[in-house]
Every structure is written in C-alpha cells, then in structure tokens.
Design brief:
It is found in: Cytoplasm. The chain is α/β, with parallel strands linked by helices and 426 residues long. The chain is built from 17 helices and 10 strands. The chain has a 5-stranded mixed sheet, with helices on both faces. It has a 5-stranded parallel sheet with strand order 3-2-4-5-6, with helices on both faces. The structure holds 6-O-phosphono-alpha-D-glucopyranose (G6P). Residues 78-81, 135-137, 140, 143, 197-198, 281, 409, 412 line the site of 6-O-phosphono-alpha-D-glucopyranose.
Length: 426
C-alpha cells in the first residue's frame, strides 16, 4: 500500500547534521512513548484510537438520528475545538461542498463578531438544523456567547425538540457547558482528561462533526491506527516523525524562524490552520519556537512569493504534496489559440499544478530557502487520519527536543484576563 513519505533532499541538511541530532530525537521519542516527559498526563492521544470503545457507536447513532432531520448543522467551537473538524470536512468534501452536498456545515463560536452571527442566523433560519457545541473547558467566551444566541434560535424554532437537536462535546464532569447539558438532557460526548484541545481532533471533537458531514469515520480511525502503529518505531531512519522533528530543530538552531506549510489545493487550506495551532501553541513558549505560517500556492505566489524568494532568510518551507487528485479537469483546445496556451491543451490541471510545484521548489531552493516535502498519496479519510497523527507525534517529539512542554498554553490566558477585566467581570 502507498504511504505518506518525507523528502528532505531540498532541506540543505547534511547527513552529519542528522547524525548529530539523532540521539536527542530518539530520547524525546522515548520520553513521549514511555510517558515520562513533562505533562505526560496529556498524552492520551497516543493510543486513544485503541480505547475509543462505545464512543464510536454513539457517534454513529447520533448521525443516524440527524440524518433525515437536518439540512444543515452548525459546529460551535474555537481553536482545537473546531479547526480539525473544519480541516477534515473541507479536505474530504472539497471546494464548494456546502453548495453541492447535504447537510451543509457552518461554523460559529470561533469569533466575537455580531455581524457574523447575524448573517449565520439568516442563512440557517429557513433550514432544518442541529447544533454541535464543543468546548473542553466549557467556559470559552466565544463559544458560550454564540451558543446563547443559537440556543435561543433553536428553542424558538423547535421548542422542546430543540433538546434532541443539540449535541455537546465537553469535559466529563467540569464546566458550564456540562452543567447546561445535564440540565437540558442534551446528548453529550466526552473529551478525555488526558487529551488537550489541539490534539483532540481524533476524539468526538473531530469525529462527531465528521460523521454528521458523512465522512467515513471508520477509515479515518484506520488511518490513525496505522499512524500509531508505524510512528511508535524507535528506529530514527524508519520513523518520518522523528526525521521531520529533527529537520525542524536543525533549521531552527541554524537561525530559521518561520516554517511555512504550503499546499497547492484550496480545499486543504484549513489543514494548515489546524497545523498552525498545533505547532504554535505547542512550541511558542519561553521565547522559543518556530513561527508556523501557511501559504496557499499557486494563489499566494502572486502575493507572498516575492518575500519567500528574496526576502529575509528566516524561512523554510514544508510542502504538503497531495500526489493523486480525485477530481480533475483537462485544458481545452482552442482553434485560435488566442492566449498561446495550446501547447498544454489536453493536459490535466493536476499535471500543470505539479509542474508549478516543481518549478517553485527549484526557484525557492535557488533562493536558499530550505524545502521539506511531505507526500500524501491522496486526500481521503485514511490518509487524513494518518497525516493528523503524523503531525501530532512530530510536534510532541519536536517540543521535547526543544526542551519545552508541548502540552500547555499558559500565554493564551493573558488576553483573556485583560478582556474580562475591561468587560467588568467580577
Ligand atoms: O475547547 P475550549 O476549552 O473551548 O478551548 C478552545 C481553545 O481555546 C483556548 O484558549 C486554548 O488556547 C486552545 O488550546 C483551545 O483549543
């Protein structure tokens, strides 16, 4: 079977540099798997897929329940409580999926914009809907406020039946969301204590929205399983998580400050958004960490390509290369060849996109921008599960190697404290 592969040929990293860092990486990997590193009580994601148990059946029966009742559903959540589901649904259902497939999927609770919420209410008011409210802490203000508004809408629309159309994913015991859920009898799913927000896409946080959106959850779990199995290998030369973590740390130590995750498929843009939270919150602490950024090519080659090519040499690029595309188009032949493009008529767009990638990679390499390539055979649920797992494992190894705790996010509280005090919270 084809597999996810890592190509470091354009990374400007020598064999010797890899050799030198090997022992540190292996030690970090070992700490992680033996659960001996800092915050080891937050490493439940490593084997969650083997412990999922009844949760899977319950997700499937919730999906069955809403199947004929919903034209649309809204996922309320922020950060780790929505990015993974959004990434998965967009990557699998593809561009314009809400116009093409039912149920349509909307997101709320990820901002404080009244205008966004008002428009969303207008969009869904004539549709049959249900809600999935996701918050591990159960107290996040963006999600809680949006839930206030949409709960009211649900109650006006469905009265008592609204209780059956609201699904909650939260902590087992704690938080306001848990309380309100118990009070109203909403169907509730649990985010395990030992899995933090940005590692939670593999729990009901990601799985419930994926199931409602008709993604093949079993295949996603198979991908996770395959990742868990393959990436526990402690042989550096056989484990691409170890190699990717090594490459990032080598480049960082050499003075690179920004890692850009690049993709060439618009439907994969949100994978990069999920990845940014994963690496940003995990590694950005104690004055350390690579700044995780993302660019979408070829679109952004026409805006940011200049900087990557000739700007400050603080960047390296990691390309998510989807090798086979399911849908494609062929360039039509034109009798008059008014744009001079007949020389590529008959060629699939995927071929041209691939050549754009190769040309860009060469150009950036000539501009001394190190390039890492992660090859994904195709974008389906299986490889999506595996790539999520690949990034989570790589991130934890990378964080331990850099001597930080990859499972906390103390800095995020700072803005919240100020905001609450400005709002007059007592
Ligand atoms: O799931 P919640 O508790 O609502 O948290 C949602 C998000 O917000 C927080 O501020 C954290 O920085 C994130 O790590 C988390 O994913």
């Amino acid at each position: 079977m084809e597999n996810i592969t890592l190509n470091l040929d354009g990374s400007f990293i020598s064999k010797q540099e890899m050799e030198n860092i090997k022992s540190e990486i292996i030690a970090a990997h070992e700490l992680l798997l033996n659960r001996e590193g800092v915050s080891s009580d937050m490493t439940g994601w490593i084997d969650y897929v083997d412990r999922i148990g009844d949760e899977y059946e319950e997700i499937m029966s919730a999906k069955e329940y809403i199947k004929d009742k919903c034209e649309a559903f809204i996922v309320l959540g922020i950060g780790g409580s929505y990015l993974g589901a959004k990434a998965a649904i967009e990557a699998i259902r593809g561009d314009f999926h809400n116009e093409i497939e039912k149920p349509a999927v909307y997101f709320a609770g990820q901002n404080l914009s009244g205008s966004y919420l008002k428009k969303l209410k207008e969009v869904v008011s004539n549709k049959e809907i249900c809600l999935i409210v996701i918050s591990k802490s159960g107290t996040t203000i963006e999600t809680a406020l949006s839930f206030r508004v949409l709960k009211e809408l649900m109650e006006e629309k469905y009265m008592d039946e609204s209780k059956k159309r609201i699904f909650v994913v939260t902590d087992k015991n704690r938080g306001a969301l848990k309380k309100i859920s118990d009070l109203n009898g909403y169907k509730t799913f649990v985010i395990p204590d030992d899995i933090g927000g940005r590692y939670s896409v593999i729990t009901p946080v990601g799985l419930l929205p994926m199931a409602f959106a008709n993604l093949n959850v079993q295949e996603f779990l198979n991908g996770l399983k395959s990742g868990a199995e393959e990436y526990k290998n402690s042989c550096f030369d056989e484990n691409i998580c170890c190699q990717y973590a090594a490459a990032r740390n080598i480049l960082n130590r050499r003075g690179k400050e920004v890692e850009i995750l690049v993709n060439y498929e618009p439907s994969c843009i949100s994978i990069a958004e999920w990845w940014k939270q994963l690496f940003g919150e995990s590694e950005g602490k104690e004055g350390k960490g690579l700044f995780p950024a993302s660019l979408n090519f070829t679109t952004d080659l026409h805006s940011m390509g200049q900087f990557v090519q000739e700007g400050r040499k603080i960047i390296f690029e990691t390309t998510l290369n989807i090798e086979n595309r399911r849908d494609d188009m062929v360039v039509p032949f034109d009798d008059r060849d008014f744009d001079g493009l007949n020389y590529i008529s008959g060629k699939p767009f995927s071929y041209i996109n691939q050549k754009a990638f190769e040309g860009t990679f060469m150009a950036h390499s000539e501009g001394e921008v190190p390039g890492i390539i992660i090859n994904v055979p195709e974008m389906n649920e299986y490889y999506l599960g595996k790539i999520f797992y690949f990034f989570m494992m790589s991130c934890a190894i990378s964080g331990y190697t850099n001597n930080i705790d990859p499972f906390t996010q103390p800095g995020v509280e700072h803005y919240k404290k100020n905001m609450f005090s400005l709002l007059g919270k007592r």
